[in-house]
Design a protein that fits this description.
mainly alpha, 0% strand, single chain
Amino acid sequence: MLVELISLLGLIIGVIIARSAKEEFLSGKKYFMLFRAILLLALIGVVLSNFSIIPFLVGLLVGCIVRKEYLYFGLLNPSSAVSSLIFIYGFPYGTLKYDRKFSILLDIILFSIGLLINFITNLSYSFIAGGLTSVLLIFLLKSKHVSHHWDGIKKRRSVSQSSKPVKKSR
């Protein structure tokens, strides 16, 4: 139980970091978002050690409905790698959500509910990985930086296609 609580401290430390360094937060927001996505991807990779397709697909569907990653974090059995990644994930996540007190409180409550569910029944890691994959995909699709990147690619393609050299006939 102590390991889970320590892994949850990363969220609180992230909020403290954001409140104490507001000037740096604005310039580093895109890096916090990138760091958050990379850590979530690393957590999915660690969790997918015993992959099974059916629980993964069910987790993907449930993850589209329940988009709070801290619920899935609570469902995980604590290991040193998982707990460390959750702790580190809390830094950028807490930094990005520092002004949303209700959201952070909800994440703590969902983490506790996940711990309770994990205590009662042991869910498949493939299910949890599916849920976390949905959360990551939705986060990436909603991210302004990712959408701006795709918009830039589309603009470059349309400009390059419209500016093809026209053959002059003599």
